Amino acid sequence: MWVSTTLGRARNLGWVAACAMFIGCSSDEVTGPATNNTLFTSVTLATAPGGLTDLSSSVPDAADQFIYFVAKSPNGAGVFKVPSTGGLPSQVAAGSPFVQPTDIVLTTDNQTIVVADPAAGSIFQVAIADGHTTAISETSQTNPVALDLKSESGSDAIYYCGIKDGQKAIFKKTASGLTVLHSGPPLSAPTGIVAANDGAIYIADQSVIHRLSGGTITQIATGLTLGSPAGITLTPDEKAVVVSAKSSSGKSQATIIAIATGEQTVFNNIIGANSAPAGLHGARNANGFTGLYSWADRVGGIYRLKP
Predict the structure, then answer these.
(1) Which of 198, 237, 204, 196 shows the shortest CA–CA distance to 220?
(2) Which of 17, 25, 179, 263 could lock onto 29 through a cystine, CB 3.0 to 4.6 A?
(3) E-only strand ranges, 19-75
(4) Are 295 and 280 in contact (CB under 8 A)?
(5) What is the DSSP letter of 40?
(6) Residue 44: which pLDDT band, with cuts at 50, 70 and 90?
(7) DSSP3 helix / strand / coil % (the chain, rounded to 5)
(8) Alpha carbon distance 216, 201 (integer Å)
(9) 26 pLDDT exceeds 50?
(10) What class, spelled out in words, does domain 38-306 have in CATH?
């Protein structure tokens, strides 16, 4: 199940009360969100870092064949892939023009990799077939740090966090051009973004999750310790936001935020053995999320997650 049931929450609250009364839990255990390890029923390590470093983000393809990710290698920073079933990573494209790529998504036809590289100042497109890499010219000097991509009216739209006139900003890139959706406060240092089918955009920004809708930004969660970068996605039914984060003890987890109520739960099965959470993306095709996700730990590797 994607969101914990009322019965499950009641059981958790009962356990917390007993814990506090009889065995002396820490304050984090008493007041922290409930664990919801049914969020993903399958969690597997697709690849360990090996000779790669700074595995900052990843995305699976909709066919469940490969997971693509950005990292640094002896050949330079770039894009790599690993079979979804697990194995050794291979290079797709590395070195110039990449400088320090941070985030990655796929076009909905699964033919092109889209990469944000703030150090290079642009978003790049990488052809999966041959690794040919080109910059998206309209994004030059916007210092993109986080990406999302979804199909809208038969074509792909790229949403991203970057900089406009010295201000943190949210952009939308379509075939028609580049649009600034918001710039300036309350944005502080956004490093994660996901766009929903209802037009809302969710942004991970330091310890806060914002919702941008109709030109208005509101906070739906605060006080989080987010990943670096803070990967953020939606459940397939788009009723909850899922963001890569850390527990109070510094362990990796995915924090689940129910959009309707703001209720938070956490998923930490297997990924909780890590402590450097980073990018989190779901596979998408023209119809939306497929139910397949991947999560990166900067030093722990790339994980495949499935409900």
Answers:
(1) 204
(2) 25
(3) 34-35, 42-47, 53-60, 66-73
(4) yes
(5) -
(6) very high
(7) 10, 50, 40
(8) 10
(9) no
(10) mainly beta
